[in-house]
Amino acid sequence: MLLINGIKLRPDESEDKLKILIEKKLRHPIRSFRIHKKSLDARKEPVYIYAVIVEIENEDRYLNKDISKYKEEDFSVPDIRPDKTVVIAGYGPSGIFAAYRLNEAGFKVIVLEKGKRISERVKDVERFFKEGILDESSNIQFGEGGAGTFSDAKLTTRIKDKYIDYILNVFVENGAKDSIRYENHAHIGTDQIRNVISSITDRLILKGVEFHFNEDLKDICLDENRRLYAVKTAAGTYNCDYFLLGTGHSAYDVVKILKNNDVYLEKKDIAIGFRVEHPQSFIDQRQTKGIIDAANEYFLRYKGEKGVYSFCMCPGGIVVPAMSERNTIVTNGMSYSDRSSGIANSAILIQIYKEEFEDGYEYLHDIESKAYAYSSSYKALSQNISDFMNNELNPLKTDSTYPLGTVLYNFNDLFTKHDNQIIKDALRDFDRKIPGFIDKGIMIGPETRSSCPIRIKRDEHYQSINTPNLYPIGEGAGYGGGIMSCALDGIRVANEIIFNYGKV
Ligand SMILES: Cc1cc2nc3c(=O)[nH]c(=O)nc-3n(C[C@H](O)[C@H](O)[C@H](O)COP(=O)(O)OP(=O)(O)OC[C@H]3O[C@@H](n4cnc5c(N)ncnc54)[C@H](O)[C@@H]3O)c2cc1C
Q1: Cystine design at 295: which of 147, 316, 336, 411 (Cβ 3.0–4.6 Å)?
Q2: Would 79 be classed as within a structural domain?
Q3: Is there a single domain that holds both residue 431 and residue 495?
Q4: Which residue, judged by its Cα, is nearest atom 35 of ligand 1?
Q5: Residue bearing the CA closest to ligand 1, atom 50
Q6: Among 159, 164, 160, which residue's Cα sits nearest to residue 97?
Q7: How many other β-carbons are positioned within 10 Å of the β-carbon of residue 31?
Q8: 430 and 458 inside one domain
Q9: How many domains does the chain divide into?
């Protein structure tokens, strides 16, 4: 097989043209091809750049700087079929893919998940959006699929790892569109990822994975050498040969369990901020002069005394209430597959160094409950960006998409004076890069759950450094941030167990 890079199409050209362009490059007819990567270069006149895979005889005669040999990755597992039980707490991306991989290798897998299955969870989330009644076990953070289920489901990561293709293949086999395998900045949207996750769960059930929804981890059992041998829920005790903990960054109760059992935790830097919303047409115009009418994204980064950056942008999305605890406010972003709300949102976050707080969870909780106390409801805090810059409060220039409504608030009161200055410098910088960013935008917040304030430190075999057989995975363990990186972490730990089975 050959990998052919550098094939270009203008946005107005059809992909039907690709075959002719490939044949031109090869100077040879082809029967078929598949797209390997597709990315947009919008630096000058926007153009899509493709890499494609072609099967052809006498490959060597075609090799040049754009054409190389291509070999499919091998994702097979050794045929060990061990008589061992793995318990996984938390069924977000890290837990899902750890379960998937360990099941492939023949381990007995038991999943304990605090929340409900997606069909029930959707009802709870929709009720919260409409009536403001929050279920602390079934919400945007908790339930089948984890935190990314009500999201834009962007499938991007800066990590380079062959298992990215493994994850995307699993998504596609379970109903995601094929283009996620090759599109740069691919996303599925909340409507589709819900179906994909449900399908993965159904498949795992058929393959023998045992699921316990509505059942949260209550304690861990350690022997005299601190080795974890069982875990407890309200329904009973589960003995385990391996225990994977993937309960996410919002599981404050799990952190308490770990602290009570002296599991080694370390503090980590975090980031806090707010969402900004702009008309999508304004972002499209600024990013690609409106030539590409698909919802355009932006990535903004300011390097001042502290980093300020855009994060988790949701083109054509909505800002959502992402709290899991009563009497707190947390924002985040979500979109449907068609990204058609007409509004672009993105978090704007400032780095908070671990030296700036004693206990990261308390620090974040204080901000979230301060916001609720000000609002006296689940209405989010809001301000025009221009008013934040001038320390003023005026009615919002545009309505927010946040479903529970907003109250006007001066975000200058949320951050320290020092951080306000840095955020304002950053916003001025963003306004230079996207002229009108300040004037056209509104702020909704606070956004506090972009990163986990602790790391459950692991050794070289991915076990807690002072609690053998506790394998922390994903974002809550401090080893991932985002759907792909957490899924990869679940696979990394599962592979460690699979490929070292019988050796360690
Ligand atoms: C609204 C929103 C939008 C997002 N959008 C994107 C996006 O577009 N792209 C992207 O890459 N990332 C996105 N993220 C981030 C991404 O979802 C997370 O980084 C990722 O889900 C973390 O995976 P995880 O497996 O570590 O944990 P989580 O997904 O947080 O899953 C943890 C699971 O553990 C369960 N749990 C908690 N406590 C217990 C307990 N005591 N016992 C048993 N189970 C428990 C929870 O119910 C949950 O299902 C978004 C997050 C949110 C909230």
Answers
A1: 316
A2: no
A3: no
A4: 90
A5: 148
A6: 164
A7: 8
A8: no
A9: 3
